[in-house]
Amino acid sequence: MHKAVRLYLRDEDDAAIGIGTLIIFIALVLVAAIAAAVIIKTAYSLKNQAEATGEGARQEVSGSIKVISLIGDRGAAVGANVNTLWCYITVWDGSRGVDVSKMRLVCRAANDLDELSLDTTGATATRYDADEVPPNTAGNGWDPGSNMYFLDADNILKIEIALSLIGAGLPPNTGFTLQFVPGSGPMVSEYFVTPPSYGGDRYIDLTEL
Fold first, then answer.
1. Cβ proximity of 180 and 65 under 8 Å
2. Predicted local distance difference test score (pLDDT) of residue 116
3. 170: alpha, beta or left, given left = phi > 0 and alpha = psi -120 to 50?
4. ∠ CA 141-118-104 to the nearest 5 degrees?
5. Cβ-Cβ contacts under 8 Å for 186 (sequence gap 6 or more)
6. Where do the domains of the chain lie?
7. Which backbone phi and psi does 170 adopt, to 5 degrees?
8. Which residues are registered as beta bridge partners of 10?
9. What is the reported pLDDT for 17?
């Protein structure tokens, strides 16, 4: 007479449960890692935004120059590089204004560093040109004919910089730093990198790049 043999698979059941638990644990670790990466990226983004907001607030409180826009001009023939930089500037509301005749512009790209002073007869490799927008506006401090070169909250200046000062101009994907150094008050610095390609456009918007 043979006795029935009972097979117990307890050990195998425990192993299956353990593998399932391990898979769940690994999935949780992966989810946590992805969540951490998202949180870190968001924190860096918020940090950069906070720094930009703080810098804007600092400049506004200090009454320094406010840069409205930066436009690159490739010329009527639409050359390969940006050869002229147009800067539209004003001052923050409530500021005392800036004597532009005493303001210097410092331009830096790669290994080039140039300091420009004002010349309302035209931009050169050592001079920048400036005119108000719209021209001949009455009631403000800008009147070159009377040797008045004052930028206040009631006017906007269009500054022309000839980028021949850095050789053949700014090609695509090139970093450029422009610093406004007034006779008094804090310096204002603008940095941008030109787009990877200019396409067929003559005018390139370089504001906040």
1. yes
2. 94
3. beta
4. 100
5. 58, 59, 62, 64
6. 9-62, 65-205
7. -95, 115
8. none
9. 65
Q: What is the pLDDT of residue 193?
A: 93
Region of 63 please: left (phi>0), alpha (psi -120 to 50) or beta. Answer: left
Give the right CATH number for 65-205 from 2.60.40, 3.30.410, 1.20.120, 1.10.10: 2.60.40
pLDDT computed for residue 63 by the predictor? 47
Q: Which residues of the chain have pLDDT under 70?
A: 1-17, 48-63, 209
Give the separation between CA 114 and CA 51, rounded to whole angstroms. Answer: 28
* C-alpha angle 164-133-174 in degrees, rounded to nearest 5: 30
Facing residues of 107 across strands? 114, 178
The rounded distance, in Å, linking the Cα atoms of 71 and 102 is 24
pTM > 0.70: yes or no: no
Distance (Å, whole) CA 92 – CA 78? 34
pLDDT of res. 60: 47
Element (H, E) at 104: strand 104-109
